[in-house]
């Protein structure tokens, strides 16, 4: 009897202890420093950073060499078009898009979170533009539905429909961001300035509309006219203060990996860019490049001859023995300019700055050149193309003067600031003439210069316009044709083969020469 009473007492104590533990279980086992729900302010900075990182990485490799801003020495696979199936920006892009969709989901119908929703739409379009302009048809309508709908094998959406969707989303983003919303946090791009996000949305829409201006001229014309005719409803970038550029605060941001020592030091100034800038006495050359090591100068020289680029498309052996002056005694890397100090990491040069360079996404210069082009091509019914063209040039010079001043490189800043801009603009190969075709080519050339190290935008412009000219080098593969897209990643072929094959059939192949929907210029 005593034993039974003891057992009962023991079991009762256990039960009471269990109830006591259950009552405060969540309080005890919840980390007060870890959020229990996803909030947009926590998602936003990571999305911006990861997208900019991927954007800068591609812009600093294929994006630099394919349109001949830079060339390669030592390892020249990028420069000779020996491009393998590329998992980037595909993999990084969709990894980021998962967070973008989460941001949209948690903010779309939540009171006070409309600003995050609008920003999420802009970030969605930026990511999709990056991916589709690299590959063509990609998952879009069925993308990122593995968790919500169990769709792990999404169909590929034709690029025309993707562009229509992106443009519609940017129209909606502008509307949403115009509403009254609570102040936001976590915004490492614009520090919570919603008007600048609206300007980014409309400027990005302007970019996309111009990109489809040959493939879908009616839609492009209607959209471009709507934006330009009503700047109050559709504000766009008006100065360099508005441009989309991620400011860094670390020593070696991803956008400068290509200028590191070792194998990354293979990216050098292209002879194409060198010759075009020298022909215009354009001091931006001294931003984009450093004097050759053999000159004995450091990061700046007054003498134009101290800057020399490499011919694009050489084999590895030819690149290592290349001489810009055809003098065998003056050949090799010591006679070829590195990229400018603005783009150098601190491991490579102690004079570099951790905060001067930015990952440039879209500039005011680009907007000015887009409007100039629209006027010149009569997409817009009226306007002064030359005025906007000159605004684009001035803004480019001002931007680089500002960034070199931040870096403390006074000689380079002074070279830019001391330029007689009126004389520069009146040069025969810069100023407008009575030849509309020549004027359009000048717009494209200046836009190409201004898009140095800006993602793959210069490549996209060349694919759309065939300007300025790109001549493959002597060792170029791909049948001596400039690539117009990336190959789909091998992982996609293996894991989503049926939809991959349908996309390839729709596009006409999975080759470096397979044109995107909007790419109809005669550039092959």
From TrEMBL:
SUPFAM superfamilies in the record: TPR-like
Protein name: SusD/RagB family nutrient-binding outer membrane lipoprotein
Pfam families: SusD-like_2 (PF12771)
Lineage of source species: Bacteria, Pseudomonadati, Bacteroidota, Cytophagia, Cytophagales
Keywords: Lipoprotein, Signal
Segments passing through the bilayer: none
Signal sequence, renumbered to the chain: 1-25
């Amino acid at each position: 009897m005593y034993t039974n009473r003891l057992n009962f007492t023991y079991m009762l104590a256990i039960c009471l202890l269990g109830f006591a533990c259950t009552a405060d279980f969540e309080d005890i086992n919840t980390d007060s420093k870890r959020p229990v729900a996803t909030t947009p302010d926590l998602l936003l900075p990571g999305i911006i950073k990861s997208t900019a990182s991927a954007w800068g990485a591609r812009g600093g490799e294929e994006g630099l060499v394919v349109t001949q801003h830079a060339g390669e020495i030592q390892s020249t696979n990028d420069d000779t078009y020996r491009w393998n199936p590329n998992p980037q920006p595909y993999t990084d892009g969709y990894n980021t898009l998962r967070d973008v969709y989460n941001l949209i989901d948690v903010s779309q119908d939540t009171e006070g979170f409309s600003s995050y929703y609008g920003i999420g739409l802009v970030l969605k379009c930026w990511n999709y533009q990056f991916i589709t302009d690299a590959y063509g048809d990609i998952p879009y309508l069925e993308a990122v539905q593995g968790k919500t709908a169990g769709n792990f094998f999404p169909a590929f959406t034709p690029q025309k429909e993707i562009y229509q969707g992106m443009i519609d989303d940017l129209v909606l983003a502008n509307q949403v961001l115009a509403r009254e919303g609570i102040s936001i946090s976590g915004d490492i791009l614009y520090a919570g300035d919603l008007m600048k996000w609206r300007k980014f949305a409309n400027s990005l829409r302007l970019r996309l509309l111009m990109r489809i201006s040959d493939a879908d001229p009616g839609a492009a014309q209607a959209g471009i006219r709507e934006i330009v005719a009503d700047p109050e409803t559709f504000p766009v970038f008006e100065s360099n203060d508005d441009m989309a550029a991620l400011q860094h605060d670390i020593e070696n941001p991803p956008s400068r990996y290509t200028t590191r020592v070792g194998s990354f030091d293979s990216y050098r100034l292209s002879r194409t860019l060198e010759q075009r800038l020298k022909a215009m006495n354009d001091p931006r050359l001294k931003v984009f490049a450093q004097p050759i090591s053999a000159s004995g100068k450091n990061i700046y020289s007054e003498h134009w001859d101290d800057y020399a680029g490499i011919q694009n498309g050489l084999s590895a052996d030819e690149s290592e023995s290349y001489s810009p002056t055809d003098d065998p005694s003056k050949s090799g890397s010591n006679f070829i300019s590195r990229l400018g100090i603005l783009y150098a990491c601190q491991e490579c040069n102690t004079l570099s700055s951790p905060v001067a360079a930015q990952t440039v996404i879209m500039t005011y210069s680009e907007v000015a050149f887009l409007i100039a082009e629209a006027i010149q091509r009569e997409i817009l019914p009226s306007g002064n193309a030359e005025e906007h063209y000159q605004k684009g040039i001035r803004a480019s010079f001002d931007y680089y003067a500002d960034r070199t001043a931040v870096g403390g490189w006074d000689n380079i800043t002074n070279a830019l600031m001391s330029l007689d801009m009126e004389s520069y603009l009146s040069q025969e190969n810069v100023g407008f003439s009575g030849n509309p075709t020549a004027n359009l080519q000048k717009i494209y050339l200046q836009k190409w210069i201004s898009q140095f190290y800006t993602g793959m935008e210069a490549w996209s412009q060349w694919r759309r316009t065939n300007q300025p000219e790109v001549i493959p080098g002597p060792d170029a593969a791909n049948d001596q044709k400039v690539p117009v897209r990336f190959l789909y990643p091998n992982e996609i072929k293996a894991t989503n083969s049926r939809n991959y094959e349908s996309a390839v059939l729709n596009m006409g192949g999975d080759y470096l020469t397979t044109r995107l929907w909007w790419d109809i210029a005669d550039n092959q």
